[in-house]
């Protein structure tokens, strides 16, 4: 017959489950008596008994207890029978907070209320409980919701031996790579030995820089953690603020004696005032009038010489001085956990490097023909959470604008390095005149090369499956040419406000297996002035509660709501905050581009047959236009000579019609000559008797820059002539 109690049975409540377990953990016989009496006498033991007390403490086992609370946090029943709990007044009808030190009441009360409201347990909090004689007991408490139909809470209590406390503290401190969280965990553990605990770190630790050698005269310290959570007096240094310079100098002198970092104890108020001297330093460092004694323990990395990362401070009342055994435990805890602080420092440095690279790739300008704004939000503050998302926007030398968004697989430095390489390669190839699909072909080969075990540059990391989307905007024709490698479809909003995702055929992504590789499609669409184009990465629209199509639909609605008069930077931030999932699981990246283009009167295009008189006809058209634009004679003659040379080359080496286009930009005149030839013009050094090669030399001397881009019909040679200032 099954004797397991039903879920509704009172004997299956959290209180009874904990109570039934107590018998297995309570020591028996003489060891129990020794343990209990040692713990009960621990706070009042004279100096001569310290060695015996330490031995008894080393034999102490975990001791379990349980308290049941109602929704008003009043004790309804309790089981604290072990001798170690002697002196704790936990009678039914008394408020649970009466067991807490006054400074811990707000924080613990908030945790208790949170479990009552949410039903989510709060496990393994290191806490001090007050005995009736004024001494304190270090315990680990877990707050559990009562099992239905009961209401209230069950608080399980584990009285912790010092060895167990050191182990638990080190385990808790090593769970985060964030500097602030690591320091907070250390301060929370140190609170078991005092009334107030603080951790102050060298400023170089915050920035991720290496801390080498020993401090000479002064440490620039910034407060990283402070417990308990309470209102502090004016002038007292709280987390995030720097300690006064004089305080850094005094702490450096205190912990560095004979060039060796040492723990320093200042026992009373009189000694505090004598050491600190300056009233401003006392206000900054001393938490209250009752906190008269302090132990300063340096966080030291072993080495030659040792490196001091900062100082941990534990404050006590004047009537509760530090014993030698307690100082030994404090030093051991800080020594065990200093390397966790250094690991957080290293990850902070990596995070800073990755984020700096990522910020460096964010667009700064889209040129005169496109207004852009971008948003990048890392998923997590540590380096492991920084991914390979990037967006970029830059004007091309031929007057077009490139919009690029990519998502490299993975996180951390491997993803960041690949991201930077792909981004720079895409920019270089686009600036060289390659089409969007041709650039993606090169990026595809690069990702495959990086994944090669023999020639790859990112050992232990694979970027296979990364995605990228490239859009090229022509401000004269207002056409956008786009290609995508496995990326989510961009969203286009017309000047009338109609928004829709662009239909781009799916692609496997970059670095796919050879059998899966497909040609990259080229999608061309019209984007008149006032159009808004949104490019993004999957972190913006992927929400576990929604399908990917629903996420894209929400983004489409948010982008469609952007008013033409809205500031684009503000609109981008609003769209990202509205659409991004909560909690954020991946990096969020968004690029908004509002098309402006050139005014109709600033451009002109002529399509001419490839005949011997075509250079002359082109000069006539261009000369008439430049006179209407009131171009200076020097610039006009330079442009006419430039057009003559480019059209002559097109007629000589190509077949089919020749297209001449002239654009008046903000800083000069851009001339384009297109033909159906596929030969690439090359500038070379020519001899005196050579008949060919002189035309490009003239073009090179007349222009600020020139180049070639390839089209489906042939090529376009473009050249820019700067207009004189004034």
Describe the secondary-structure layout.
Layout lengths: L13 H8 L7 H13 L8 H9 L4 E7 L5 E5 L25 H14 L3 E9 L5 E10 L7 E7 L2 H12 L5 H12 L5 E7 H5 L13 E7 L17 H11 E2 L2 E2 L2 E3 L2 H8 L2 H7 L5 E11 L5 E11 L6 H37 L9 E8 L9 E9 L5 E11 L1 H19 L4 H15 L16 E8 L4 E7 L5 E3 L5 E3 L21 E4 L5 E5 L11 H13 L7 H12 L8 E8 L7 E6 L5 H15 L4 H21 L4 E7 L3 E8 L18 H9 L2 E6 L4 E8 L4
Antiparallel strand pairs: 1-2, 1-5, 3-4, 4-5, 6-7, 6-12, 8-9, 10-11, 11-12, 13-22, 14-15, 15-16, 16-17, 17-20, 18-19, 18-21, 21-22, 23-24, 24-25, 25-27, 26-27
Task: Give an overview of the whole structure.
This protein has 726 residues and is an alpha+beta fold. It is built from 18 helices and 27 strands. A five-stranded antiparallel beta sheet has the order 2-1-5-4-3, sandwiched between helices. A five-stranded antiparallel beta sheet has the order 7-6-12-11-10, with helices on both faces. Strand 14 and strand 15 form a beta hairpin. The N and C termini lie far apart (102 Å). Residues 1-11 and 21-62 have low confidence and may be disordered.
